[in-house]
Amino acid sequence: MATESATGNRPRLVLVANHAAFLVSHRLQVVLHARDAGWDVTAAAADDAVAHDAAAVDVLRDCGVSFVALPISRAGRSPHREFASYRSLLALYRRLKPHVVHHVTIKPVIYGSSAARTAGVPGVLNAVAGLGSVFLDDTVAGHLRRRLVLAMYRRALEHPNMTLLFQNDDDATAFDAMRLGRDVRRAVIRGSGVDLQVFRASPEPSDVVPLVVLPARLLRDKGLVEFVAAAVQLRGEGVRARFAIVGGEDPNPSAVPPALLAQWRADGQVELWGHRTDMPVVFAQSAVVCLPSYREGLPKSLLEAAAAGRAVVTSDVPGCRDAVTSESGLLVPPRDAKALTTAWRQLIGDAALRHRMRQAGRRLAEARFSVDAVAVSTLALYDQLLHPAA
């Protein structure tokens, strides 16, 4: 049933993320469900990524969604640039007068929440998709940035009609420990969901060398260094397998340095496939999907791997462990290349075990991670923010 504002007009929704491609890959069904439920939807994302996200912007506009490019620098730290991000969001909210704004990732949450409070936006949904690299950086500079981010978070989370949306219980507990938003409504929706019609279970390719795939951006925090070290170890043992990292470069403080990427390419122990838009095809070629990340919200790549019926190896950390069961995958300690080699050795050598995990993973995706269920749950939060007294 279509929702309406108190004045009887279509309620206005603005979604803000770091880049348009993320909105399409992780929030498109939410956008479509909101549009079909009667919301007037605008999407906004960083202008420094629009040149690379042109196709995503076209998808949003083809869906009847307005798109606005904002000067939000995903990796920038210039005070002038950061203040420009806040001012652009404030101007956008004053111009559009949305009833609800939905922020995703740290910068949109911090700057957008402050702008929404100043502009008088009635309702704010802040999606905490993991804690971000700033909370994993143990350097002196990292500790200083973390203190600044915590102070900004506390200031931003003061809106009177706000919901904090987490993807796992550990992140909600971490916010409590850091005294962030303790008086703010909480909700947990486990991940962004997966389209079960796009990602279908399929048998492994026959008569080929098993392929282990790591689907992630080229960031250290995703466990790439450990992945490469484990691949070198197994290939040195003579294990017949291929290892591929599928993901593009990213302007993130945790990015793998270009010199190290060049070294990996020259060594040839792992394959670097770059960014791919045909992940169902990639998973269909694989035997094992591996994400040895240091921490996540709830990684969409693992939900897609489960739906595609692939055995999974991932880190026993918040987010990652929420995407598997003991029947669908193996958990290993983070930052532990030796543990990765042990898990891979077990799966590569046991086709029957991989088969059981494929079946269990598909059942898990069907039971918990349907993208439509995630969209319906998110729209319920929009309605709660639109009608807080209901």
Describe the structure.
- By secondary structure, the protein is α/β, with parallel strands linked by helices.
- It has two domains: 12-193 and 370-386, Glycogen Phosphorylase B (Rossmann fold), CATH 3.40.50.2000; 211-368, Rossmann fold.
- It is built from 13 helices and 13 strands.
- It has helices spanning 20-36, 54-62, 79-96, 106-119, 140-156, 169-177, 224-236, 258-267, 279-285, 300-307, 337-348, 351-368, 371-386, and strands at residues 12-16, 40-46, 66-70, 100-104, 123-128, 162-166, 185-188, 211-215, 242-246, 271-272, 288-291, 311-315, 329-332.
- The strands form two sheets. The chain has a seven-stranded parallel sheet, sandwiched between helices. A six-stranded parallel sheet has the order 10-9-8-11-12-13, with helices on both faces.
- Strand 6, helix 6 (169-177) and strand 7 (185-188) form a beta-alpha-beta unit.
- Helix 1 packs parallel to helix 2 and helix 4 (106-119) runs parallel beside helix 5 (140-156).
- The model has no long low-confidence stretch (mean pLDDT 89).
